[in-house]
Design a protein that fits this description.
Layout lengths: L20 H5 L12 E5 H17 L3 E2 L9 H9 L5 E3 L2 H9 L4 E4 L6 H10 L6 E6 L2 H13 L6 E6 L12 H12 L4 E7 L11 H21 L8 E5 L5 H10 L9 E5 L11 H5 L18 E12 L2 E4 L14 E6 L7 E2 L4 E5 L4 E4 L2 H5 L8 E5 L12 E5 L7 E6 L3
Parallel strand pairs: 1-17, 2-9, 3-4, 4-5, 5-6, 6-7, 7-8, 8-9
Antiparallel strand pairs: 1-10, 10-11, 10-16, 11-15, 12-13, 12-16, 14-15, 17-18
Helix pairs in contact: 5-6, 7-8, 8-9
Protein name: D-serine dehydratase-like domain-containing protein
Amino acid sequence: MPARLDTNDKGIPQRAVGMTVDEFLATGPRLSEFWTPLVVLDDAAMRHNLATMGTWCSERGLELMPHGKTTMAPALWQRQLDAGCLGITLATMGQVRTARGFGFDSIMLANSAVDERSLRYLAGELVDPGLRFVCWVDSIATVDAMERALVAAQAPRRVDVLVELGAPGGRTGARTVAEATGVAERVAASTVLRLAGVAGYEGSLAHDRSEAGLTAVREYLERQVELHEGIRSLYGEGETYVTAGGSAYFDIVADVYADAGAGSVDDDTHFVLRSGAYIVHDDGFYRTISPFDEARAGEDAPRFVPAMRGIARVVSHPEPGLALLDGGKRDFPFDEGLPIPRGVAADLGEEWTSLTGAEISAMNDQHSYLRLADEDAAAGAAPIGVVVTLGLSHPCTAFDKWRVLPVVASAESDLVIDLVRTYF
């Protein structure tokens, strides 16, 4: 039975309570009916970003398994698969179970799996011959833990694993090529695991596009390719993978992987990007660091456009130049930069007017502090009751605050054409 909207789905119109999503959408809802605060998705922008990334990857012999933890929205995962993605990447076995519950059958776990309970679950899922599943290992201890659990669970077939290469000061992953090679040799000797390639995450090695940051990323990726070349004779029969690529440095990944043979008709290895944020992009962190930022890209270069925005209402004017909004940390992301005021309107569905020089200076759980430029404050630009549209930073901590998010046809449209449900 289709899930029905209820009073826990914040932001939805009161008349939607008790309806299924399809029933509600059939009534032609408008954004002007929704309550504030709100996070809104833009259908036209998402379609643009999907097509842009898909074309760019295809031209470079790269495949996409976008990180589903960004949105935890199966409807958006399906959009990505429909756009040609090889599968979906996830971060925990709990997320894998969610994906399997929705019928997804091509999954990469960008993590190690060592919990006996979740490995017992995985063994049961491997009965499905249509399931493509691959996870990571970065130590012999991890391999030992997987083996114990999978042998005890009598897994019906081997689990494909990738050796994860890390770097000093980074996140997980064997710290040297030599250490990773030892892990690969241990996997190759396993009776329940199959060595299927190499993996890693370059995004933790830099946080900007400085020369030092880009050099660190490139050198790490070159070591990953060195590992791949060094252990490929150990790979078991079947598909193999070389994978990296968050949403910040995928252009560097493409350059290094091109030198390693990405797209070669003579090589059956999947060179896989796992970028997850590209489907909605943002107005903050990724806008400043993505190679497809519209402010950085050349006139003819590919570019992403932001496909998510926040909306909050002015509820207080406690002092000149300061307005308090009804959305805060419980509603909007703040870990990679505070929301950015973009415009003000009398209400949802009305014409937006730009806010020049305004900023969000602080956030509480349910409030944001909107500081107005002197000229806007003097002109009474944000009186009590108006709504403010906000550029948001970091999709990964935007979606987790919402059970359903309305999707409008475009940035210029008030027509709600979908409700995307999340499963965090």
